Amino acid sequence: FSDVPSMCRKLEDLSVDEFMLSGFDSGEEDDCEDEESTQQKGKMKKPAPQKTSVKKQGKASEHKDHLSALKSKDPEFYEFLQENDQKLLNFDDSDSLEDEDEDEEERMYHRLPSQLEEADDDNDEVETGKKDLKKPKEGTKVTEAMIENWRTGLRKEPTAKLIRDITQAFKAAVATTKGDSEELCRYTISDSAVFNSLILFCIKDMHAALNKMLKLKDPEKGQKKLILPSSSPRWQKNQIDIKMYIAGVVQLLSSLTQSTVVAAVLRHANQMVPYYLCLPKQCRHFLKSLIKHWSTGEETVRVLAFLALNKICRNKQDIYLNPVLRQMYIAYVKNCKFTSPNTLPMINFMQRTLAEMYSLDTQVSYQHAFIYIRQLAIHLRNAMNLKKKETYQSVYNWQYMHCLYLWCRVLSTIYPSEVLEPLIYPLCQVIIGCINKVWHCILQQEDFNKKPGRMSIKPINFAVILKLSKTNLQEKAYKDGLVEQLYDLILEYFHTQACSIGFPELALPTIVQLKAFLKECKVANYCKQMRQLLEKIQENCSYITGRRQKAAFGVGDVTAVAAWEKQVAEEGTPLTKYYSQWKKLREKEIQLEISGKERMEDLNLPEIKRKKAEEKKADKKEFKGLFESDSDDDDDDDDDLFKSKGKHAIYLFPIFVIVSDGDQKKPSSSKGKAPKKMLSTELKEVADGDEDMVEDLELSDQD
């Protein structure tokens, strides 16, 4: 293209006949052919780069002269080029006129190497196009002596070179946990003892050594704001090594399985939080790993992960709080799908810690709570309107229930809050909607006077049961647990309102319902529990009424009412004092259930059915001789009954007789009204007769 202007001028001088006779040949084509032949010869001979550059420079200068001549011949076209293509006019000798793609191809295919390789007859792979890859050199093997030298050097004076060596060795150790044997590392770890020593050395000494190398000051007592390592003038110089080390810590956390080792590494990672805050990419990976351990790890691991999460979000709320809350909520929902006595404490832990995280910023928390409570409401609306199995199951599951529990805990923990207070009403409406569907949120009305249809082996733990089977509904444990749940929930609710100035009016509907229950129920145990609850509520009503009568302010004085309630709460009420004692006993009982220890109700003990009057009279006639002693020889008979040669005896009870194994000696005959003596086999038949039916006894605690 560089010779286009000169070609145009030559063609202008030719006539049509002369042009046709020329055969489209020109001197430039000859030059091109000469260049091609020269390049073909250059494959066998080394080209002279200087001549090529001079030729290029000559063409560039010639093109520049053509453009300057264009200014006088065609000023309008030259002005057009000035406005639209300055690069063409500002052409330099050093510039190339070749297209970029052609230049790249020329560099790839037409540039000869500075030194030609000699052909190797033995290597057949070169001719077939296969490349001989060089094997990487094996790294230096880490030993216990090297680790000890590093430890001594760190404690004496940590240097950048020493930190780099330790970081490279730590990288190699992490690569072994991932199974990444092909990763290039300066060092290699082949012994498990060396691996343990290196990891232990790093988590113990690296944090202090890095602070010393960067000359970071120790935070003062009570100082909440962290000192970031990026404030050190040495940070830029050592940033690459520190980045490699803390990235290795995150990779190590993801590959470890033993909870004790994970806990030790998490403690070290918690110390390194200021370094993560200076490196956003590594911090994001660290947060992802922390959320995983917080939601799935062992108890100690969960706590340490939460402490690190809380520490990061407190210091960089504007960057990390919003995404961390979202990921923690998703992890919470995923891990509360199944509920059992073993998983329930972990679910409660996630609820409490997540509520604490939401309390860091109520504005951000409102956005999350609004979206997720709205989702719960949409699921409930679909279940009510569509009435399909899929929509019904989308609400009738543990995840939905635990989400309700979570938002109740969040709103009650942060209360009072002007920002979150508008969300209380919609959440209550969702819960009421669940109550109307008769799900786990409520306890159904039951006929407590109806005798249970079957014996119950163990008590029902309502906290981990979403749905009861028809068999469970017929058990005595179901009714017992139902009464316990009523007692616990009513007591807990009124404890929250025990110091309210309007407690008597608030408790009135419940008092009416409890009195109606006591009037209808005939079971002593159930009546005793409900009567005790009623008495405590009425006692608290009387106390609040008495204190209220002495007040000198009106109902409309909100400030005075709040001060009055605060004073009553400090002094305590009868219900609050009783609740504190009851709560301690109840928590101990729950801990026993969680630990798997059986309560007295769990024991499968037989209970005796009380017989009718006619059956009792028949038993008295049959066993009359065993209880009457009108003759003087009765003492001898007793000796014969209770003193026998074998290791056995006969034990007499008012209703039934238990006979131990062994042959019974025949008792001697007695005078008077003594009945005919009974053999042990006959006594067994009496004891194992059909008359003794085993079923539940309705006894009070005193019985």
UniProtKB/TrEMBL annotation:
One GO cellular component, as annotated: nucleolus
Compositional bias segments (type: Basic and acidic residues): 59-76, 127-140
Subcellular location per the Swiss-Prot or TrEMBL entry: Nucleus
Primary location: nucleus
The entry's keywords: Nucleus
One Gene Ontology term of the molecular function aspect: histone binding
Region span, Disordered: 21-76, 89-140, 662-703
Any single biological process term in GO: ribosomal large subunit biogenesis
Compositionally biased intervals (Acidic residues): 26-37, 92-106, 117-126, 688-703
Compositionally skewed regions (Basic residues) per UniProt: 42-58
InterPro entries: ARM-type_fold, Noc2
Superkingdom of the source species: Eukaryota
Protein family (similarity comment): Belongs to the NOC2 family.
Protein name: NOC2-like nucleolar associated transcriptional repressor
